[in-house]
Specification:
about 140 residues; alpha/beta; Severin; seven-stranded mixed β-sheet; 4 helices; 7 strands; about 30% helix
Length: about 140
């Protein structure tokens, strides 16, 4: 089994792959987003999907399941009012209304451990539907 890091709650572990892909996104800009999922049997947080640097926020939103929880990180590039290029990393806790209660509880109690393992997150968004994590929400937060 790959090296894993224990989370503070519920005995969940974050795989080395989770941290490695996050660092590649943060420093090398090879990923636009990463979607993480919890494997309830192995008690591991794993990488579910990685979006290439050419993908968009809409691609991330479309990759989230309508009936199950996920975590995601998104590298948001923007230009400030004084014409400076900036980048902020968003952490998204996705818990759609149609997901199982057990999954919602598991993801809610494991979130802080994953956030601590991923150093460099600027903002957090919690969403139960697409409107709560719309691109306008991301844009407003980054200003």
């Amino acid at each position: 089994m790959a090296m894993a890091f224990m989370m503070a709650t519920k005995g969940m572990c974050v795989t080395e792959e989770c941290k490695k892909s996050f660092m590649e996104m943060k420093w090398k800009k090879v990923h636009r987003y990463i979607v993480y999922k919890i494997d309830e049997k192995s008690k591991l947080v794993t990488v579910d999907k990685v979006g290439s640097s050419g993908e968009s926020y809409d691609d991330l939103a479309a990759s989230l399941p309508e009936d199950d929880c996920r975590y995601a990180v998104f590298d948001f590039d923007f230009v400030t009012v004084d014409n400076c290029r900036k980048s902020k990393i968003f952490f998204i806790a996705w818990a759609p209304t149609a997901s199982r209660i057990r999954a919602k509880i598991l993801y809610a109690t494991s979130k802080d451990g994953l956030r601590r393992a991923l150093d460099g997150i600027s903002y957090e968004v919690q969403a139960t539907d697409a409107a709560e994590m719309g691109f306008d929400v991301i844009t407003d937060r980054a200003k």
